[in-house]
């Protein structure tokens, strides 16, 4: 790996052309203020200037709200996606087929919201990555839990398979039908039920879009405890159903802690109301946990109670270039030690990621080209204190050569633009060709080894092999692009990647879930006893197996 | 309520007699430095002095480690505890009785660790509150999961009921047998399996004592994510099995987020190994969640993987007197707003609690007598920043009359002594007579109303009616003491307290669980559909019902 010697810190300046909220980010103007780290004197000056700078700019109360909606429009064109059963070895299970009588029954339950128009059905049958496609003939759009209950009661009696669908932003083909499952969309279940402006507890229907909820609670001085690239489309119910991780996991933890209550409709239409708003409740088994991360296979989440943290008064983002992965790790340790409770994100990306966001999205690298980049975010209650802590960190990592170049932002729009570099990698990849996606938990020390290994293994068969992700959580997003889907490339990747991960006692799905595409690799991360128990749980809650079939669990022998 | 007008802030000074680690705290010397808040000038002086004081004292790296081991010795004497079936309406289920052949089989599995001596069995048959007593004839002390597995396999075949037992510090009679269940103790399963000094992930056997783990990780610059009064005796396995909340919940959240993996032995002896050390793992259903908080009724937890937060560099504690509950609430809001991410605890207690810790434990009130007291703790990475934030808060709450008197501590021993005032309330209550204990989640605004209500309702029938708890989590510990157990008093309390709580949509068990004593009140907080589902889950995992019978779920009709 190349060592970059020039050390500088760049104060981020926004081009006057840039506008928050636009889909395509304008070219980011390159830094306009540089401080060369030639002598200790300079370093001191930098520290002082940084603090003054922050104070002068004020302490924006706004928090990061990424621009990057997933660019559906961009990937919606092109050739038709291969039908899932044509690409993958999967047999339709003996469910009934939707009849005219079924359609009439649905129409009775949700008049005017039974969609059978093939054009409207098209987008619901295909995942956003355009890798799997079902052939459902009907999309149902209930507005209430009672309607969901009646629909499921009907499907249960009629042995009709059901595919619950939120924002359809999943990465593993869990949100679209495999065959002709009835699509049950939460899109019209988008009402906030209540918000408590002292406790920050939000209760809402499952179909609320994450970004809209973010806006709603931010106006009330709170933030959502989760944030992810797909926020502009994903539904909170889908987030919970897939136990989404995302960008705030490091600071605010898992949905298993922040979700306080759920309302779920079970396979037979029974409504399970565990929609409490209590931070603590040890009365019996915590049933809601069964549904968090169950990908719609155990029940349909219809409402969510979630605790929102207070909106931080100050947010700072530093974007840094590192000469090697060892330095990335050491920078993380330094940040965790020195930033402590205000560290709210530590993301990394490799140089190929940066090239891809430049090439496909015209985003500009704000720092000197480096083998690795990290994005460090702090969120805290005192702008002055936070800036001082971050400045101390930057001084330390630059002095010690862990970081060769960096830029810092405190203004909300600039913060967003730095975040876009990390967040829009997924979008850039999807424009690069067919993407083989892996989302792995690995021991942090070995997080990048697999990327290097795969580059050698695949050689020119892959267009790009890139690694990025939530380093603070030990979560690598490993992506391989190719001109088109190729069985040969797939064969070179799998099971190799899974076996490699299992050898490290890692997880073959850190946050994306298993859905359709990863269901057969469950055994790489879970022992047979666990898989059997999962199957028993599924049989208990969904004895007919009508809920999101062909997903999450491997087909039983 | 009496309004206290004198405003002063007291710097806590430790009596030379006091020794950390002793069971009975010496008298705390009363404050020796007072700053009268007569004018804005004085206030400024206070602020400056507080900061200087903190700097002078240095920034203790030590974190709070409460002295209060639960005083078993104190409550161990006295008359024999009534056998549970004599006080409560409960019928023995048709389990087998332990035979000589069973004892021989156990002896083969764990030679020398099969205890049948009645004296040794005595303490394991009685809960520490001396409210329930079983009559088990055998205590088993396995050292490994394999041994637990063999024991359960035998019990399952023989239809022998099993009572898993950790530190036996539970509040709801969940940890002792009701009849003659085999006691399966985790006491000898007390080995640390691994600790990762970068990630802070600890893997250990279930019988490790929380305080010992705390010490272990503190030596490595981390802390346990939970802390509770019983830390000197409770086992981590028991903590997880009961989903313990405790004193760090506000900051580090629930065990549902911090526990990364579990090893569990199922009813039939099958070992379920989900002992991963990954922060993120979305491969299939998160089975470990079923066992967290299941009180040993679904499986026996034999090992735990838990993520420990870095040890904070600075800990400050303020102990404040408030003139009314409205002011307690407003002080909480002020602290949350101004302390943000460094607020690590916000506890409250009423004046009767203070009287009891004074009367029974000779602890001295370090501030002027007030209707309410709050303990505010900050934990952060910068002593200077944290002290500045806390000082600003204190200035604000004193100026606005929310607080009438206060004292602050940064030194570890002094921090511990302030904490003892809050933490040893349970112990003081147990010395006051028979204690009727309620652990409720309520809307924070109404948290104290029930205490006032009950004082009127019970009149002189109760010795004391006290309220204290984790205000930041909406968790009230409501305790009523009497000279002895009384059915009449119980009748005045129940179901009144539960119905009152249900009316507020609260939880009848915030953190203590249901165990034996609360199992029949589950329906006040959970709908029938949920209770049915819990029963199905129990039947699935423990079809013979041998694991901790008569606990958690109401007896089926």
UniProtKB/TrEMBL annotation, chains A, B:
GO terms for cellular component: mitochondrion. It comes from the Eukaryota. Residues 1-20 form the signal peptide. PROSITE patterns: FAD_PCMH (PS51387). Pfam families: FAD-oxidase_C, FAD_binding_4. InterPro entries: FAD-bd_oxidored_4_C, FAD-bd_PCMH, FAD-bd_PCMH-like_sf, FAD-bd_PCMH_sub1, FAD-bd_PCMH_sub2, FAD-linked_Oxase-like_C, FAD-oxidored/transferase_4, Oxid_FAD_bind_N. Its cofactor is FAD. Transmembrane segments: none annotated. The keyword rRNA processing does not apply. It is an enzyme of class 1 (oxidoreductase). The keyword Flavoprotein applies. Its EC number is 1.1.99.39. Belongs to the FAD-binding oxidoreductase/transferase type 4 family. Residues 132-311 form the FAD-binding PCMH-type domain. This is D-2-hydroxyglutarate dehydrogenase, mitochondrial. It is found in: Mitochondrion. GO terms for molecular function: (R)-2-hydroxyglutarate dehydrogenase activity; FAD binding; zinc ion binding.
């Amino acid at each position: 790996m190349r060592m970059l010697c020039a050390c500088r810190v760049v104060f981020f300046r926004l081009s006057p052309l840039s506008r928050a909220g636009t889909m395509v980010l304008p070219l980011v103007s390159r830094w306009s203020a540089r401080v060369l780290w030639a002598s200790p004197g300079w370093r001191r000056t930098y520290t002082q200037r940084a603090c003054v700078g922050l104070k002068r700019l004020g302490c924006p109360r706004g928090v990061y709200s990424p621009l990057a909606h997933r660019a559906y429009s961009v990937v919606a064109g092109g050739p038709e996606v291969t039908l899932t059963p044509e690409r993958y070895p999967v047999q339709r299970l003996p469910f009934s087929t939707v009849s005219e009588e079924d359609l009439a029954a649905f129409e009775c339950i949700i008049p005017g919201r039974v969609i059978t128009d093939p054009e409207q059905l098209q987008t619901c049958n295909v995942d956003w990555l355009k890798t799997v496609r079902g052939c459902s003939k009907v999309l149902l759009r209930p507005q209430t839990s009672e309607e969901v209950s009646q629909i499921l009661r009907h499907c249960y009696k009629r042995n009709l398979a059901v595919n619950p669908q939120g924002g359809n932003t999943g990465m593993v083909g869990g949100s679209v039908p495999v065959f002709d499952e009835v699509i049950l969309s939460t899109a019209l279940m988008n009402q906030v039920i209540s918000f408590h402006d002292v406790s920050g507890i939000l209760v809402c229907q499952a179909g609320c879009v994450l970004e809209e909820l973010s806006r709603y609670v931010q106006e009330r001085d709170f933030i959502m405890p989760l944030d992810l690239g797909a926020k502009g489309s994903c539904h909170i119910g889908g987030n919970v159903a897939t136990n989404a991780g995302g960008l705030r996991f490091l600071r605010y933890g898992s949905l298993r802690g922040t979700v306080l209550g759920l309302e779920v409709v079970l396979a037979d239409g029974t409504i399970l109301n565990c929609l409490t708003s209590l931070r603590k409740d040890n009365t019996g088994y915590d049933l809601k946990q069964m549904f968090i991360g169950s990908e719609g296979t155990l029940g349909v989440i219809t409402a969510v109670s979630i605790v929102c943290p207070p909106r931080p008064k100050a947010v700072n983002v530093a974007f840094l270039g590192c000469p090697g992965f060892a330095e990335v790790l050491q920078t993380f340790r330094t940040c965790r030690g020195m930033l402590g409770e205000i560290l709210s994100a530590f993301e990394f990306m490799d140089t190929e990621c940066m090239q891809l966001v430049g090439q496909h999205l015209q985003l500009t690298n704000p720092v000197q080209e480096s083998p690795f980049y990290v994005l460090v975010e702090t969120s805290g209650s005192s702008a002055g204190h936070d800036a001082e802590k971050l400045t101390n960190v930057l001084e330390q990592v630059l002095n010690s050569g862990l970081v060769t170049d960096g830029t810092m932002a405190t203004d909300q729009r600039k913060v967003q633009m730095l975040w876009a570099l990390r967040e829009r990698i997924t979008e850039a990849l999807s424009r690069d060709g067919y993407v083989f996606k892996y989302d792995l938990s690995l021991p942090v020390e070995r997080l990048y080894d697999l990327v290097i290994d795969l580059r050698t293994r695949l050689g020119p068969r892959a267009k790009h092999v890139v690694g990025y992700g939530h380093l603070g959580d030990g979560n690598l997003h490993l992506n391989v692009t190719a001109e088109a889907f190729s069985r040969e490339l797939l064969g070179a990747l799998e099971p190799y990647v899974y076996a490699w991960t299992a050898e490290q006692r890692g997880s073959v799905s850190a946050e994306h879930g298993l859905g359709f595409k990863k269901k057969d690799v469950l055994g790489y991360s879970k022992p047979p006893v666990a898989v059997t128990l999962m199957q028993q749980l599924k049989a208990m809650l969904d004895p007919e197996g009508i809920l999101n079939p062909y997903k999450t669990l491997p087909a039983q022998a």
